[in-house]
Amino acid sequence: MIPIKTKEEIEKIRAASRIVVQILDVVIRSIEPGVTTWELSEIAEKELTRFPGAVPAFKGYRGYPASLCTSVNEAVVHGIPSRSVVLKEGDIISFDFGVLMGGYYGDSAVTRPVGRVSKKARKLMKVTRRALHKGIEQMVPGNTRGDISHAIQSHVEGYGYSVVREFVGHGIGKSLHEEPQVPNFGNPGEGEVLRAGMVMAIEPMINMGGWEVECLDDGWTAVTKDRSLSAHFEHTVAVTEDGPDILTLP
Length: 250
Ligand code: MF3
Ligand code: CO
Hints:
This protein has about 250 residues and is of the alpha+beta class. It contains four helices and 15 strands.
């Protein structure tokens, strides 16, 4: 069963989500050549202390060791912040961050350039972000989970990019991961029917080359098998009678 949230619960998810967005904003503004992903995660942790009661959602989740995921270039998701990963001009970096506040979770991800980046990297980021919003547009009562998946897939494949299969979006609320799973590929009309009060984290991970990924020896960092660039954007979104309500907005 997909949990249906009350308006009050959705406001609690929005409160957690707003903390996520504010912290991501500070982290993004700290990007510069020479900074390490470790330093960026320290910034996120320090910022989090400004919100009493807020807890990082990822630290300790299935043993994940950090609060912030930092995935550079061919890293798709779950990159572990490291003192030895130094950003350089031309890189792209994906941040994924989640917060538990007042019993509810918020979850968001963004990909950003480090200094000046190639035109093809800019296009990958733009298309991935647009695909996220194409998926979100489908989040109206009566549509299905597959309508979201298909909107994302058809947008990105039109550019010759591929959709990561191994990681999917998810329901979110009292748990970080709830039903349903929301793949970024699929067919219109398939899957669960969407109802007002459902809240989902939609998170396309899009590769410039093939869709296959592999896991590095650290046990977490997923990279593209062909080492092509990858981008990731994520919003936590409520289905409402008035249409999709993006909770991870400033
Ligand atoms: N946004 C990702 C997800 O929902 C982040 C999980 S990070 C983890 O799965 F490292 F904690 F797994
Ligand atoms: Co997520």
